[in-house]
Hints:
Blueprint: E1 13-14, E2 33-37, H1 41-63, H2 68-91, H3 98-101, H4 105-112, H5 123-145, H6 162-195, H7 202-207, E3 209-213, E4 220-221, H8 225-246, H9 266-282
Antiparallel strand pairs: 1-4, 2-3
Helix pairs in contact: 1-2, 2-5, 2-8, 5-6
Amino acid sequence: MTSPELVSDFGATRLAPEPHALPAAPARTPVQRTRVLLWDLPLRVFHWSLVASVTAAIVTGELGGSWMAWHGRAGLAIVGLLVFRVVWGVVGSATSRFTQFAPTPASVLRYLRGRWRGVGHNPLGALSVFGLLGLLALQAGTGLFGNDDIAFAGPLNHLVDDTLGSRVTGWHRLLADGLFVLIGLHLLAIVFHVAVKRHRLIRPMITGVAEVEAGTPLPRPVGRGRAGLALALGLAAAGLAAILWLGREPATAAQPVAAEPAAVPAATTAARTVATTAAASSAPSW
């Protein structure tokens, strides 16, 4: 049964005091566990939508050519998702809020010593989350202004000159290499926790429900979830609309069409020809 101390899928929660280390249980004492709602529904939808969008952006970027149009669409989807996540990280449920899992040197040290207890992202996982979100924001931002001079130009490329556009495109490609490294480390960490430490990480991000040790400190609800969800969705939509509006190419001024010369009547042309011939025949020959 889901613990009542965590909120519903749309709930927001209060930041709980930072957990302290507790004495280890006797070796033969079975560890009691309880089921809690760890990840809310909006966060889970965001997570898998971001996975799909980043995968699509990587694949279409590698394919190039006509696929670059879809690369741009995937980039816009990433921008909208990041705006949503930033807002949801402020007004969302307890384990979604940045203040709940923002790492500190003390919490990282406790985690490395095996003395950290809590729900949600552990301190090292939190560093990975902030790193990925920040790098994706830079990657998507440079893509908006980039131009490869072949098959793709970002929707805001016309707002910068060619020199800056080329420079931003170079940054975009360098950041892609860093993103590959960070994604690889993230996946390796997941494999380590699942295969070695026997932590169930995938299922809770699908169902939202996880098992934690009984007595683990849990965040408390404050109940502004639906309004926060509407705010996050509204700002994400507004951000995308602003990009699309700014991305409209300015209308070029119509060039005046030169008037075609008036047609010369055939009779006038014949008369001019006769006069020219007569003048030529009467000219003295020296």
